[in-house]
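Spend some time on the protein that follows and explain the fold to me:
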Amino acid sequence: MKNIFISLIILLSFSASVSAQEITAFKDKDRVAFLGNSITDGGHYHSYIWLYYMTRFPDMRLTIYNAGVGGDRAIDMVRRLDGDVFSRNPTVLLTTFGMNDTGYFEYNGDQPEKFADEKVKESYDAYVQMEARFKNLVNTRIVLMGSSPFDENAVIERNKPFKNKNKAMLRIVDFQRESARNNGWEFFDFNQPMTDINTQFQKDDPKFTLCGTDRIHPDNDGHMVMAYLFLKAQGFVGKEVADINVDAAKASVISSSNCEITDLKKTPTSVSFNYLANSLPYPMDTIARGWGFKKSQSEAVKIVPFIDDMNKEMLTVKGLKGKYKLIIDTEEIGVWSAADLEKGINLALLTNTPQYQQALRVMFLNEERWELERRFRDFAWVQYNFFQTRGITNLNTREAIELLDKYKSKDGWLNGRRDLFSKAMFPEVRKVWQDELDMYLSAIYDVNTPVQRKITLILTK
């Protein structure tokens, strides 16, 4: 109850700023690229956003690309625009940077303000190049996004914060916002809403943070919060999975939303009907996914009101007395009182329903897709942050791997990607991986179509 109360306070505190930064919802056949640094590269927020579209709009054929590379600044993103981003022909390009642009340890040095000025100017100068490239794009909608924050206030053992780093990041957010305004592009800021959430929860728990144990990289719960904020800005608050409202006493459908109710029948001890929804409930992963992550996606519901705002599959039945067993198809779901059923139960919270189990298939396929896509992002890191900076574009050579081996002992990140690169340098390997990615998408769009369910309520003793 306390967490719910806090979430409501937080919602009121930042809802005005988010609603003022509305992002156009994606449409059928959109090709969406999320350009960013390691928070995008190794993170889940874009995958969670796509999962929402996969389950809420099963007929929509949307493609979302992870175009993040760990460690990138704006200037690094400029260097890979052609090969890594524009080559995908995105219809929507979302861009975020600022964490690496603003630097780190120097904020605790002798001249932090001078350092901040220099880093913000470097980022701005690089962004001017990016902005010019974006202006030349045809049929691509541009969305600039302020970076998730660096959390300076969380109490984290053996982790001294870089004082005022996030203030420098906010200066980058400011010129992104101004650029979007000047160019007629869309803009959304992750920084302020996430900072507001951190501030509110830290009043009761000083160790709380959405930004991970390093103050930089959100864990899975933080990425789900980011997905929630993004989807909220796209206007999906109040969009239910489905809403079923039945009067059992009159054997009639009072109302239905985003679903079809047919063949309603009533006996002295039961009521039943066929239920075909247009959407699936949004499944919540309870496992911490990704390297170094310790929290699960599902933990985000303690922080933001995602369930109430975007994941309601309500079953409301009036005119009953006693207790009733709910059966969907042949699965016994649970027992509820007539009063509970008249108030309404949210089927999206029940993981044993056939429709939730169907949604889980989509979630796990999407997670496997995410894991496989990560191979391409690690390959991109080597390609653009190592080889391209040395003027090497032909990676399908023995000389390339010999050069990598020459430097790997000096760079742990490079060494960690050596085995993957030794495979991915060959185009035949990458093609098989891409074919596998396409197979995952095909499977997702095969299993995400809602099917008709039989709902039965049986009076129990």
